[in-house]
Design a protein that fits this description.
Layout (H helix, E strand, L loop, with lengths): L29 H10 L8 H8 L6 E2 L4 E3 L7 E7 L2 E6 L5 E7 L4 E3 L10 E4 L3 E7 H10 L1 H27 L2 H16 E4 L2 E4 L5 H8 L3 H13 L3 E4 L2 E4 L2 H9 L1
Antiparallel strand pairs: 1-8, 2-7, 3-6, 3-8, 4-5, 4-7, 9-10, 10-12, 11-12
């Protein structure tokens, strides 16, 4: 039985200009699964015949916004690919609350590539999403047969490590404004949609989520967002955010 929705996630229906961006749960059809697998960095070198065989071995449930995919401490055993929608990964922090360690969009992978026994984070959908699950034993079998796929797996792990280093560097030196600006730029690369008014983030982003991503309090995130709005870098409302001036936001993030 599917896990219940997380109590602290955002409501499914929002009164904001946020556009519909993710497929409904029923849309995890064959073509969506094949496209997601073929576009995933890990499997770009996989022959078409192998890709079709792999597709028959995956699970692809649809999740509604706020639904938990797995909980921290649960038994690990799958690699996941975001076929559509968005997922946030949440870890308990030393302060006793939950910290958003990553926000993932279509094509991103999460879960495990190794024989880790327990999940180190909780994965929750931020909008209606289609998530592909591949058992680790199936992934390892593919890696053993295809050296290029194995090298892509090493690249994937190296990228995750580099992103962690960059996040730690930003947290060690950045002001609240710099942290929020960097977080918004990162999110726009994964989940941004160009609109006449700027780059709209295609997820409902609460101040609590933004603060957790930037490792600051929701209040500090709200004040930083207000200052970024005042200088014309962003616009926002209740759980929606648009980047109005990407160049200015980049200058603030890297100053």
């Amino acid at each position: 039985m599917r896990q219940r929705k997380e109590e602290e996630t955002v409501p499914h229906r929002l009164r904001s200009p946020l556009s519909t961006c993710s497929a409904a749960p029923a849309a995890c059809r064959h073509s969506v699964r094949i496209e997601a697998l073929s576009n995933a960095h890990l499997f770009t070198e996989l022959p078409v015949a192998e890709l079709s065989t792999l597709e028959r071995l995956v699970s692809a449930p649809g999740y509604v916004a706020g639904e938990r995919i797995y909980r921290v401490g649960a038994q690990a055993g799958s690699l996941f690919i975001v076929a559509s929608g968005a997922v946030k990964l949440v870890r308990p922090s030393p302060r006793g609350d939950n910290a958003v360690v990553s926000v993932l969009g279509p094509g991103d992978t999460f879960g495990t590539l190794t024989r880790i026994e327990r999940c180190g984070e909780t994965a929750v959908t931020m909008v209606d999403s289609c998530i592909i699950g591949i058992p680790v034993r199936v992934v390892r079998s593919v890696l053993e047969r295809h050296p290029k796929v194995a090298m892509a797996a090493f690249d994937e792990l190296a990228d995750r490590l580099e992103q962690s280093y960059q996040a730690l560097e930003q947290l060690s030196v950045g002001s609240a404004d710099k942290r929020v600006a960097a977080a918004l730029l990162n999110l726009s690369e994964k989940l941004g949609r160009q609109t006449p008014g700027g780059i709209e983030l295609s997820i409902p982003l609460s101040r609590a989520d933004l603060g957790a991503i930037a490792w600051i309090t929701p209040e500090s995130a709200s004040r930083a967002l207000g200052r970024l709005h005042a200088v014309g870098a962003v616009d926002f409302g209740r759980q929606w955010t648009s980047i109005i001036d990407p160049a200015l936001l980049h200058d603030i993030a890297t100053s």
